Each structure stands twice: as C-alpha cells, then as structure tokens.
Amino acid sequence: MSEIFREIDEELRQDKLKEQWAKYGRYVVVVAVLVVGGVGGYKGWQYYELQQREKAAAMYAEAIDLAGQKNLSEAAARLGQLADVGGTGYRIVGTLQQAALLVQAGDHQNAAVIYEKLAADTSIPEYYQELALILMAMQQADDADPQALIDRISPLAADGKPWRNTARELMASLYLRLNDTGAARKELAAVADDLDAPATARARAAELLQTLPE
To answer: pLDDT for 187-201, tens place per residue?
Structure first.
C-alpha cells in the first residue's frame, strides 16, 4: 500500500513541476540566454578594447618615428587619428603631441585650432582642458585680440588653479601688448610671490619685474 502512495506522490510532484515549467520555464530560458550572452559580450568587448589599445600604441609609435625623421606633417596626421581608435589617455597625449608638432613646423594657426577643440572636450579631465586653453592662447598671443585672450584665461590664474602661474605670465605679456604696465606687474608679482610656483618661474617673474617701470 505504501508503494502506491509513493507513486501517487511522485506523479503529483511531476505534475507540479510541469505546471511550474509551463508557467515560468520560458523566463528561465530567457535569463539563461541573457547571462550567457552577457558573458560572451563582455569577453568580446574586452578583446575589442585590447585590439584598440594595441592599434593606438602602434600608431603613436609610428608617429613618433615619423617626427624623429622630421616628417612633422605626416606625424601630426597620424597622431590626429588616435582620437578615433585610442582611449582617453592616448587621445589626450596624441592630440597634445599633434599640436606640438604643428607648432614646431610653424603652423600656429592649426595648432591653436587643435588646442581649442581639446579645451572644449568635456569628456576629458578639466586639468587637461585648462592646459589646452592656455596652449591655445600662447599660439595666438602675438596676433589675436589681447583683451579677449585675457578674458578667456583669467579664470585659470586664480589661486589654487594648477596652471595659474603659466596663465599669469601669459596675461602679463598680453597686458604689455595693451601698454598696461601696472596690470602686467601685478601678474608677475603674483608669480614671484607664489611659494608653490617652480623656482625658475619665480626667478623669471622677478627678473621681468625689474625691467618694467613702476
């Protein structure tokens, strides 16, 4: 008799399992597919990123070799392509190096355009945006409206800003273009008095101050 009850109990469990599978089975399958697909997709993305990093490294090395051969325009073009294949680090370094090669080749206008674009790139750390803005202003310091450049870089000369002393020295030169010796002296004095400024920058600012009238 007990054997019969066991068989009945087993059939009931099987019926319950079939009922549960009919109700939830398709969701189990979907979850399983998503899990497997997610793992596969993640591995595939890792492989893709590795390939992109390797490609970026090769392009950067090739550009540096071209620069060493004095083929500056071709080297700059290769570095410009890093924005499409490299990660953020390669993109920043590649862009800065590209602009520097253009400066070396005497193409200050296009270098300024590249720096301007990098300065407007909100996807990179603010530190590099501010550096790019200062470098852009340097390329235009002799030709552009000095007051317009001062207005753009003056926020970077505030206390606590990482490039403040470079910005102050640049502003001093721009004020001299405006024949505003007093404002130039103020900026140079701020550099000379900044104990956190590099010793060379402080010495240079102090020396320039001695050449300017009170």
So the answer is: 999 999 999 998 999
